[in-house]
């Protein structure tokens, strides 16, 4: 089992160390938010598991947030209710108490994926909604040419979509979610048309996979990208993406009904 850190983080990334400034770069994108809200359907009461700083919590819903990391809980904006200090694997709620359960960019952090998914299914009467990335598609992104170990880390950490669907059971759908060119939620693919943003240390720090790569290797990756941007080589190879309104990347939305 993954060791719990001082700030309460229980995943393989230490958000007590890298979580500062996360909310400045990982702002919920309204178009992705619309997809999540649609997947929640008629739900009014929702538990958001691994809620972090509160991304994708709709104000129109009665949301109960669960987040074990103190450094993430303190970044929740004032208009959101404080998050419950708990983990996905041990949700402190009765059976079927919520209309729905959701989690965004969180399942790859859980110490026991199946236990967390079963807990979400236990406490929700209706849909369980998961926004995550398909590890089979992660390496298709241009960043793999510059930072291969970063995307290898992502591909290793994200659970296979089949593992999610098989554990949840019921009626399950999986849809790819287009990433807008001006996406405000700064995961790696959000910068597919704005590669310069990945030269910013804060942008990289907000994508936890970068923290698994040695500092010297990270510097080499960033230097390679900067060199190709300065020389125009990146635009020769990928400049068409600057004019592409959306990217069908690895982002997927899993929805399971009992």
Automatic annotation (TrEMBL):
Q: Which residues form the Methyltransferase type domain?
A: 49-125
Residues that span the membrane, as ranges: none
Tell me if Methyltransferase is a UniProt keyword of this record.
yes
Q: Which UniProt keywords apply?
A: Methyltransferase, Transferase
A molecular function GO annotation: methyltransferase activity
One GO-annotated biological process of the protein: methylation
- Kindly name one Pfam family recorded for this protein: Methyltransf_11
Looking up InterPro entries in the UniProt record yields: Methyltransf_11, SAM-dependent_MTases_sf
Q: What's the protein called, per UniProt? A: Methyltransferase domain-containing protein
């Amino acid at each position: 089992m993954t060791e719990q850190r001082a700030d309460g983080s229980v995943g393989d990334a230490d958000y007590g160390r890298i979580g500062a400034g996360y909310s400045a770069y990982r702002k919920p994108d309204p178009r992705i938010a619309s997809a999540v809200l649609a997947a929640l359907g008629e739900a009014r009461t929702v538990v958001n598991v691994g809620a972090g700083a509160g991304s994708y919590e709709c104000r129109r819903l009665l949301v109960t947030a669960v987040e074990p990391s103190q450094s993430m809980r303190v970044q929740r904006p004032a208009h959101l209710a404080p998050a419950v200090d708990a983990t996905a694997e041990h949700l402190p709620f009765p059976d079927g108490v919520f209309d729905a359960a959701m989690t965004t960019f969180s399942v790859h952090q859980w110490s026991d994926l199946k236990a967390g998914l079963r807990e979400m299914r236990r406490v929700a009467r209706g849909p369980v909604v998961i926004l995550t990335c398909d590890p089979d598609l992660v390496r298709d992104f241009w960043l793999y040419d510059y930072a291969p170990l970063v995307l290898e880390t992502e591909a290793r950490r994200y659970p296979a979509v089949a593992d999610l669907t098989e554990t949840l059971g019921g009626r399950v759908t999986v849809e790819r979610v287009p990433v807008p060119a001006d996406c405000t939620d700064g995961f790696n693919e959000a910068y597919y048309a704005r590669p310069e943003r990945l030269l910013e240390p804060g942008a990289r720090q907000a994508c936890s996979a970068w923290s698994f790569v040695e500092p010297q290797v990270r510097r080499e990756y960033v230097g390679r990208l900067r060199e190709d941007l300065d020389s125009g080589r990146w635009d020769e190879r990928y400049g068409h993406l600057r004019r592409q309104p959306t990217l069908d990347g690895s982002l997927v939305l899993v929805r399971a009904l009992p």
